[in-house]
Structures are given as structure tokens and as C-alpha cells.
Amino acid sequence: MVTHVPAEAHGDERGALLSFVEAQRGAIRRSVLGLSEEQAAGRPSASELSLSGLLKHVAEVELTWLRMAQQQPNERQRSKETWSDSFRLVDGETIESALAFWASVSKETEEFIRSVPSLDDTFPLPPAPWFPKDGRVSMRWLMLHLVEEIGRHAGHADIIRESLDGKGAFDLVALAQGGGPGA
After folding, report:
1. Residues with Cβ within 8 Å of residue 60, at least 6 apart in sequence
2. Whether 105 contacts 66, CB under 8 Å
3. Mean pLDDT rounded to a whole number for the chain
4. Which one-letter DSSP state was computed for residue 137?
5. Beta-strand (E) ranges in the chain?
6. Helices (H) and strands (E) in the chain, counts
7. Alpha carbon 7 to chain centroid, angstroms
8. Other CB atoms within 10 A of residue 61 CB
9. Which of 60, 66, 58 has its CA nearest to residue 31?
């Protein structure tokens, strides 16, 4: 891990979980530092993943899980026809607008997690072949899943960024802190 996740205040499990989610978010946000829209949309491998597409995707995934936990409709629900649009910027979307959208989702996630009575509270999983019938998960599970999901894509972003210009995670941390590579 290239950044230190601060220890939670004693007994602050919510704070710890939110900090680990934020650390993974940061890795993806840093992956687009210093890139043009065109560079961030580049796909330097056989994969269809791009950095700007990953940025949008993880923001929408976090929103999807947040809305499930809140048991509210998802205003960005994807269909089979629009699923691939969740992996690329379309219709005037920019890195800046994707980052702003994700910042608003992140803030809402934190407010929600801090407001639920207990991390043991549960919500239903939607019907899907990969979920158990009538399955439920806790708010704690939600946060751990976000660490897993965003972390998986942060790894993808590391590989894509290194393929684009050779900058690795340590270089990007230094860049984000105002220094150059190796600073």
C-alpha cells in the first residue's frame, strides 16, 4: 500500500471503514492526475478499460450500493443497453465532472454510514444469479465490499496508468502531494 490509512479513534469502526474506502478512492483519483481527457480515455491493452471509464464506473457502483442500502431508487440505474456506458465518458462528461459526481456520492456515503443506527443493520440484495435468494447484507458488509470493489479497480488503474506513461503508484502519490516522481 502506498498511502497510510490513519488508525481510527478507539472504537470508531465506521471511521476505520470509511478511511479504507477513501484510501482506495484516492488511488483511482490519482490515476488520472496530469492526464488529458484523451490520455485518460486510452486503452493501452487488450482490455476495454480506461482510466476515465474506471473513474466513472466506480462512482456509479458506489452509488448503486448506496441506493440499495438506503432502499431508494438509483437515479443512474443501468440497463443491458446502457451497461457499457458505465465504463466510458459519454455526452460531454469529463474527468472533472466524473470526479465531482463521485465526490458527491462519497459525501453521501459517509453521511449515510455515520447516520445508520448500527453497522449490523441489513438491507436486501436484489434478485440476481450471484446473490442468494432473499439475501441480506449488513452496512459493515457494504463498506467491506466497497473496499474490495474499489480496490480491485484501483489495481486495474495502476496497470493502465503505468502502461500509458510509466508512472506508478508512488509517482502519483508524490505528484498528488505537489512533488515530482521520487519526491
Report:
1. 76, 78, 86
2. yes
3. 93
4. E
5. 122-124, 136-138
6. 6, 2
7. 21
8. 17
9. 58
One-letter amino acid of 86: S
- 11 half-sphere exposure, CB direction, 13 A CA radius: 0
What is the chain's Cα-based Rg? 17
* Burial of 21 (C-beta count, 10 Å sphere; 0-12/13-18/19+): buried
Q: What SS3 state is found at 40? A: helix
Q: Is 128 exposed, middle or buried (0-12, 13-18, 19+ CB in 10 A)?
A: exposed
Percent of the chain having pLDDT more than 70?
A: 95
> Could you give the C-alpha distances from 53 to 45, 68, 147, 159, in angstroms and in order?
14, 22, 19, 14
Taking only the tens place, the pLDDT of each residue in 18-47 is 999 999 999 999 999 999 999 999 999 888
Q: Which residues lie below 8 Å from residue 148, measured CB to CB, with a gap of 6+?
A: none
Length reported for the chain? 183
pLDDT in tens, 119-163: 999 999 999 999 999 999 999 999 999 999 999 999 999 999 999
